[in-house]
Amino acid sequence: MPRSRGAHKSGPRRNENNRIYADPLPLLFSHPEPTRLNSILNLLGLSTTQVLNPHCEGYFDATTRSVWVSNQKDSLILWRRGFFGKGDLSRSEPSWLTRQINARKSRAAGQMTSEEVTAKRREERKQFKFDRAQAMAAAAAEAEAAFAEGREVHSATSADGTRSIPSAATWKPQRQTSNEGPAPSEDFPDELDEEPLEDVEHLQLTLPEAFFLLWNIDCLTVHDPNTDAPMTLQQVWNAFRNAQTHHATVSSFPPDLNRFDNPFLVNYVVYHHYRSLGWVIKGGIKFCVDYLLYKRGPVFHHAEFAIVVCPVYEDPADQESSPYDLQNTSPFEWSWLSTINRVNSQVQKTLILTYVTVPAQSRVAPDILSSPACFAHYSVREVVLKRFIPARMRD
Amino acid sequence: MDDSLEQPGAAPDPIESSDRLDADEENSSGDEDGGLDWTKLPTGAGRPVIPKRGEKDFEPSAGGGSGLQLHVLDRARSAMFDALKATPSASSKSISYAIWHPGISRAHVTLARGVHFSSVGHSAPRIVWKEGEASKIHKRLELLPEEALYLVERGTLFCTKESSTLKSNVPGSEDIEGAPMSVQQAFAEMIGTEDLSLEKYQVFAYLKRLGFSVTRTEPPTPCYPSARPYATHNRMPSVLQRLCSWFPSWMHRFRRLLTASFNWWSPLRLSGRLYHDKDYPSVFKSLRFLPSGHTVPLHTTQKTQVEASSPYKIFFNLYKPSTPFRKSAPGPPDFSLVVVNARTTPMPSLYELTALFDVLPELPPPQPRQRRSTSNKTSTEPPKIAPSTVSAPTAQQSLMCRLFPWAFGIEQASPWRPNPFMVLKSGKKQVVVAAVDAGSISFFRFGQGAFEELPMA
Amino acid sequence: MDTRIRLRVSNEKAYVWDVDDITTLRSKHHICGILTGTLPHLSQQNVFLGVPLVLMPEEVVFLVETELAIIIDDPRAHSGPSAPILQKYNDERIEAINLQISLVEAREAKEAASAGRAMSEEALRKRKTREQRKELERAKAAAAADSTESHTSLFVPDSSAHTSEPSVPQPSPTPAPTTPAYTVIVPPSSSSLPWYAPQTRTHTTLASARTAGVWTYPKTLHERAKCGVFRGLWGKGYFMGGGIKFGGDYLVYPGDPLRYHSHFVASVIDSPTSNLRPMEIVAHGRLGTATKKAHLLCGWDDEKQEVSYFSIEWAGFG
Amino acid sequence: MENHPSYPALSSVLPKYPRAAGALFQAYNDILFAQQWSDVEVIDLASCSRGAVKGRRPQTDETLCVVPCSLAESISTSWLHDAFKELQFPKEIYLAITSEDASIVYYKISRGIVKPPV
């Protein structure tokens, strides 16, 4: 365990998580009861273990460049066995419907919903800041007056000051100023609550996630949204690369499919690299990086590593001719490096620059791009970034 | 689990707050530069302690500040200006003397006194012309420009500028030649020589003030003592290495890709009855077929290769104050440092980083974390580079294992397995880059990642 | 007399050596620069630094353009003295040293007399050795204490005190044993050197300095943008410090950074059409919120020669 | 996509600006369903080639303007200026930045120099 942060979770809850999230991939292995025949087969190198493949289903959506899994059973499998996808209306696992139902129940019972609790907490925080600012201004005015009269001046914020400045630890909400929670009866007539809730949420898989599930472990079928028909691997291969047109600059629309710098390919290489090493890899926009790496999964620990994907063209000519506007292809300015490093060290994540080489068209013939065999020509390597503090490196 | 941290206002973590207490302008909390409280500057003798940071206001009140604000500001400013008026000086019994020779960019030390010379200066043979005599080679003590400038500005070296005609006759220093140099003149004339930029000087002085010994990595002249710590490590091909040069380890790792049997439309075949290890670790292992790691060759075209003019050359060797240092025979450095001007040079490219890593030694695995009851601020620091262990058996063993994994019956796991997170966070090789923006220095450590060697599953 | 600030330029870096100039810059012109020299009596730390003050290039451009400062080509201003001038200078130095020595001798004689007994030269020598030994022990003890408490101590012991390898060729000349100790001053600025001649090496405009190859900043659109933004923010009464460490180009203070926290981290955007990645907004917004600053995007329009500002904050929801 | 309950409200703008369609779709759903804003409407923001969203946060009266953009795009200060202009210079606009994993973050952009709260 990297850090003891997860330790505050109560034991039963942790055990529960260990049980629910025991499997790192949607595939399951069923080991039959040991029999004499089985042990003989095992000795011969033959396996009697059954592979249980869940065969989940999703729809390709070109607009959001993702695959939607709307079937609740499949969503649960994909989330619980390897943390694939994200609820499009939730922070992680799709929970929108449950939250709505709970909110209705809370309202009916005259309690606050969790969203309202959050809103109230933010409101209180605001009030605290306001109170503190007021107290500081008053202390400053007092000091000012003392100075003007030639009396001894106490520092506005020091402990020996005559006023106490509220701190986050000491401040208490004076009075419930707002968001008491709405009255149960009038605002929400009963008949409104009777209206059935439609689950508008789906589990959204990124294209690399979908391709990983589909291509490597064959536990996902992607359907064409127009025909409803399952797409072949070759169709998926083309459709996912084609979906990257939003990256393209307008002038060269639509972009040439046979390019090594297709953003889907570059991202897939990174995604596959970390998945194959056993990491759970999720998007990192909140921390201004491309990906976050979790050792077992987001329910267990904070992410240890923050990944910035840096594509490196083997041949600068390919970059010049590129229809794509790939990010992070040039070395960063120092101010940008400090920015992202600061953001991530504030939340105790180590920043990793993950370099993906983009094969030169002159070295590798582009017709290899017609199949995933092209992946053999990319390479991934990491550079670990950390601030160096000489004063702390003296002994 | 990251939910609580996703909001940008999330409370800063304890590690960063301990940073904040670090009484150094390394401080991460924000606007410390130029914002120090000079009124807290220790004045008298004795060992001063950290002056507390002054409490600052949010903003001046209307009209440029209230009476009290202006008063406090005035006090802070005069404390600062008073401190700046101090002149560099030393007792005549402890000051050293040198003559600056612009033609060779060296200061010839004519009188060396004090502890500084145990880590500064080197011996250089020079032809000396004496009147009426033939030329003779004398060994003499010389300073590089950064060494001379540093000693001059702290007032421990009195430097004059070479002149054939001018002689002084100051008591106690009868043979001083030339005109005295001010600190200002030393800045104007010594910087810009022998590859010394202001940025490099600022980094040098910063580290010297912290007690580090700092030497040039690339000897400017053959007589300059060179650490050359890596030559034996990387440049002497062993029998083993020569044997393996035609079969690099990365090829072994990805040999499946090179065989016709690999089906790119179906990389993982689990359905067959013959598949022996039907469990998650084997599945993940079979998924590791994409080339990764720094040993995979980096294909470049002519244009992307690191140019000779790249500023990314290791310039200084750093020795911690606690490392025994002999200036005539320096050992392997604790850190290797590159200095760049942050305004004109972006961070290094992958090609530049690769070139840097190529000349650096592999680090021994990080030491187990020292648990401390109060804080564990050392936990994320890189390991100490113990020079004696660089070529220790562990390093060789891991090399062997990486070259001939099948002989050891292992594919990925090396015997080198301390806390994998520590290894992943420090990297196998490290280079420190100091990026200087008009005098403010940011130090970053770039580590060569090794994720492919330490899978999680 | 020209009261403009004298910026001593060498290697395209501008230094201010006169403390009075540093005072004027800060108090009158709201220009901070960065102190970069070692403070003579606090030479083992990096928190408080001394002269010279190094200016950011945009500070230099601003000061010269507004005729608040002039550029001096410093290497050329340091001509060598003629023999008579140096002779005179050295004579004055010797005179000052002799004065110092006689003052010390007078004080010592007085002390010796008041001690009630005249010491033999031998006794004096012994006392001196004793004192020196004590002093050394004190220093060692202090250094040892320092190294054990290095986390709380700002002042680093001189490491070289522990190792005392003799420097390779020990130069022979030692001061005559009879000369008493006196203080040797290393002149900080060159103004005290009679042969320093800045008057003849002065550039009052950027154009003149550029032609002479002494100062060429700004050369690019980006550098022009930085100068334009700096001038714009200065004109609004702010103080600016370098911001690279903090995720931008400048830290922007509402008053002297000695007394006020910065309100913004500012980043310079070269032109209205320069690419702005949404990820930059995320990062800057996030970092600002965590450090109680707002982020300021400062967009330069080179044609109109004006700056437009956008402030970024976290939305507070989502 | 066409079967999604919010498609009818977006159908006028989504096909018009295909490159920004994903970001708008995501932001609109998040605001309506996850943030639970009221009086949510989509408006055509031609100068930025996309639709924008207006609405009120729960229990507030102020109408806020949200401009969606995807992490993969590049914007500029003139883009920001155009957005302000076409929205008739509101006090601030909220940039909804979307990522393909369905994550979304909101940042408030104000014109001019707006100092942080004390």
UniProtKB/TrEMBL annotation, chain A:
Residues 264-356 form the tRNA intron endonuclease catalytic domain. Residues 151-195 are annotated as: Disordered. Belongs to the tRNA-intron endonuclease family. GO terms for molecular function: nucleic acid binding; tRNA-intron lyase activity. Keywords: Lyase, tRNA processing. InterPro entries: tRNA_endonuc-like_dom_sf, tRNA_intron_Endo_cat-like_sf, tRNA_intron_Endonuc_cat-like, tRNA_splic, tRNA_splic_SEN2. It is an enzyme of class 4 (lyase). This is tRNA-splicing endonuclease subunit Sen2. Residues 155-180 have a biased composition (Polar residues). Gene3D superfamilies: 3.40.1350.10. GO terms for cellular component: cytoplasm; tRNA-intron endonuclease complex. It comes from Piloderma croceum (strain F 1598). CDD domains: tRNA-intron_lyase_C (cd22363). SUPFAM superfamilies: tRNA-intron endonuclease catalytic domain-like.
From TrEMBL, chain B:
InterPro entries: tRNA_splic_suSen54, tRNA_splic_suSen54_N. This is tRNA-splicing endonuclease subunit Sen54 N-terminal domain-containing protein. Keywords: tRNA processing. Pfam families: tRNA_int_end_N2. GO terms for biological process: tRNA-type intron splice site recognition and cleavage. Residues 81-160 form the tRNA-splicing endonuclease subunit Sen54 N-terminal domain. It comes from Piloderma croceum (strain F 1598). One of its GO terms (cellular component) is tRNA-intron endonuclease complex. Residues 22-35 have a biased composition (Acidic residues). It comes from the Eukaryota. Belongs to the SEN54 family. Residues 1-67, 362-392 are annotated as: Disordered. Signal peptide: none annotated.
TrEMBL record, chain C:
Gene3D superfamilies: 3.40.1350.10. GO terms for biological process: tRNA-type intron splice site recognition and cleavage. GO terms for cellular component: tRNA-intron endonuclease complex. Its EC number is 4.6.1.16. InterPro entries: tRNA_endonuc-like_dom_sf, tRNA_intron_Endo_cat-like_sf, tRNA_intron_Endonuc_cat-like, TSEN34, TSEN34_N. Residues 113-182 are annotated as: Disordered. GO terms for molecular function: nucleic acid binding; tRNA-intron lyase activity. Belongs to the tRNA-intron endonuclease family. This is tRNA-splicing endonuclease subunit Sen34. It comes from Piloderma croceum (strain F 1598). The lineage of its organism: Eukaryota, Fungi, Dikarya, Basidiomycota, Agaricomycotina.
From TrEMBL, chain D:
Keywords: tRNA processing. Coiled coil: none annotated. Pfam families: Sen15. Residues 26-116 form the tRNA-splicing endonuclease subunit Sen15 domain. SUPFAM superfamilies: tRNA-intron endonuclease catalytic domain-like. The keyword tRNA processing applies. GO terms for cellular component: nucleus. One of its GO terms (molecular function) is nucleic acid binding. One of its GO terms (biological process) is tRNA splicing, via endonucleolytic cleavage and ligation. Belongs to the SEN15 family. This is tRNA-splicing endonuclease subunit Sen15 domain-containing protein. It comes from Piloderma croceum (strain F 1598).
